[in-house]
Design a protein that fits this description.
The structure is a homodimer of 327-residue chains.
Chain A: E1 3-8, H1 12-21, E2 27-34, E3 49-51, E4 64-67, H2 74-83, E5 87-89, H3 98-112, E6 115-117, H4 126-137, E7 141-147, E8 150-151, H5 153-160, E9 165-174, H6 176-183, H7 192-195, E10 196-204, H8 210-218, E11 228-233, H9 236-242, E12 248-258, E13 264-274, H10 277-297, E14 302-304, H11 319-325
Parallel strand pairs in A: 1-2, 1-4, 2-3, 4-5, 5-6, 6-14, 10-11
Antiparallel strand pairs in A: 7-12, 8-9, 9-10, 12-13
Helix pairs in contact in A: 1-10, 2-3
């Protein structure tokens, strides 16, 4: 049984999904849908590229559409709309807005009889599952999530919007000493500043007031205020040469107490080290698309998250094979 | 809604479950069932202790029975038998015999209309889930599981069976250099000897031939042959003082390649560091009992494993709470 997949949106994430689909023998890429002029878009693997406006015509030829757009403006509109035509997967990652996004997508998917999985990827996604497992396996404890070292697109974009900035790349770095304390099971109380620091590489316009740019960065509310931020001005050449990749990663820790007098300490640690954030995220979305397909086969409809998918649904192997091979 | 739980078998694991149940407000311990004379058994928390032979009378008073026995002789008989009376959870951990155990328990549970979850705990259990997630999120890659540092009961028992040995404790230790290679994403090929080494503390009878005991240990097929094993003879006093705890842990790594030319490397790492193996395992079994209860409520029956449980089923929180708080 081949699962027929479409990719809606063809940026870094869409390309990651395209690459990952070749590593899943039970999946087939039907087409890539772009809002740009398809004539200007060449897919990496030779898969056909269609205009977004024609997607609906593929209603019966695509089992799961993977929606690859930004969480700020794309996905809040796109996922719900596409869920009325297809079963879908997205990677909506604005944590605070998940309940609202869920409600909208759920209504659309239910009405059309489709399954929509939102907020897939690694955070939200795999890290969310790890936080849940941490809480249920060690109910009396503390959870700590660290991100990085890695490039934050949101923070990079925020720096790029400052007048006088031509290009910027922001690395989020976990504070090693704090990671160590958590790993040792010491359950420290950590402020945002004690958990992460920020490192910005910035290309400034010639003649720009560098000190003013620096101040605007390090005092920016929500993004940099409250963190130790280092700003390094570099040339566009160095930016292109040294900072074109998109590594990322992080850790989820759960430390808990067990025993009659709660004196024993148990620590669960999950870590990711990614050369390519979009390629890994794309690979995760493919496995989740398989899970969505299983739910569809079971006759389900509506919005779901990674919390709702039995691990077995993500694998192409049968239950008996999984038990024999991986249990 | 309170989930009414029973504990069948009251060794280290049963005590771990007893302690953990107090950390789950939606669960209640109805009773402990022992094959010893209940008059000789005092529970840690004051929970009532009943003879195993009376368990069946609790058919309507227990939602999930957690079966705490050994995998060698207890569980192959007990779990299937109890599944005809209760929905059950066990921690059957003889990997090779899982298909056979599954089939027997499945038949019993289906006939009675109960749900039975077998092979819960951390390996098999959480580590199994991590191996599955590793394979599905990085289909082109390598999985490595390391155990320890920790006490292996099976290996300790094997040493104790050698003539002249009064007591023994075997620690399984991951080979640090190999763990480092795997963590760096180098995908080394590792023989059993390169993955783990073994350290035995042994109390010998007075006048025993220590060199003969040492040789019998390090050449023992299946258990020690093929590993670097260190044997240290100590007094019973030192054994009692230094080696009475049951720490354990380990790592599951998945390293995979992504991208158009498979040149990017992504690593997933899950680690456990446990002061008390039975207390943590007991805590895991409690969360799995909640999952079993959910399956029962959905009208399911038959044998299941951790692969079949959506993460959300393990939590006392509602789906909306999980999405708002942990996603």
């Amino acid at each position: 049984m081949i699962i027929r997949v479409g990719i809606f949106g063809y940026g870094n994430l869409g390309k990651g999904v395209e690459c990952a689909l070749r590593q899943n023998a039970d999946m087939e890429l039907v087409g890539i849908f772009t809002r740009r002029d398809p004539k200007t878009v060449q897919s990496m693997t030779g898969a056909p590229v269609y205009p977004a406006s024609e997607a609906e015509a593929f209603r019966d030829r695509i089992d799961v559409m993977i929606v690859c757009g930004g969480s700020a403006t794309d996905l809040p509109v796109l996922t719900g709309k596409l869920a009325s035509v297809f079963s879908v997967v997205d990677s909506f990652d604005t944590h605070d807005d998940i309940p609202e996004h869920f409600a909208a997508v759920d209504a659309s998917a239910k009405e059309a009889g489709h399954v929509a999985l939102i907020s897939g990827g690694w955070d939200p996604g795999i890290f969310s599952i790890m936080r849940l497992y941490g809480e249920v396996f060690l109910p009396d404890g503390q959870t700590d999530t660290f991100w990085g070292p890695g490039v934050s697109q949101g923070h990079s974009d925020a720096v790029r919007r400052i007048p006088g900035v031509l290009d910027a790349r922001q690395y989020t770095l976990p504070v090693d000493a704090s990671v160590r304390q958590v790993r040792e099971g010491r359950m420290p109380e950590l402020t945002p500043r004690l958990k992460h620091r920020r490192l910005c590489y910035v290309v400034a316009e010639e003649g720009a007031d560098l000190e003013k740019i620096r101040t605007q960065i390090v005092t920016m509310p929500h993004y940099f205020e409250g963190y130790d931020t280092q700003v390094v001005f570099i040339s566009q050449e160095e930016m292109n040469r040294e900072h074109s990749r998109l590594p990322h990663g992080g850790f989820v820790f759960r430390t808990g107490r067990t025993g009659l007098r709660f004196t024993q300490r148990e620590t669960m640690e999950f870590g990711l080290h990614l050369d390519s954030n979009p390629e890994f995220t794309g690979s995760v979305l493919c496995a989740l698309a398989r899970g969505v397909y299983r739910l569809v086969q079971r006759g389900e409809s509506g919005c779901r998250t990674v919390f709702d998918l039995p691990p077995a649904y993500l694998s192409p192997l049968s239950d008996a094979e999984l038990r024999a091979k991986l249990l």
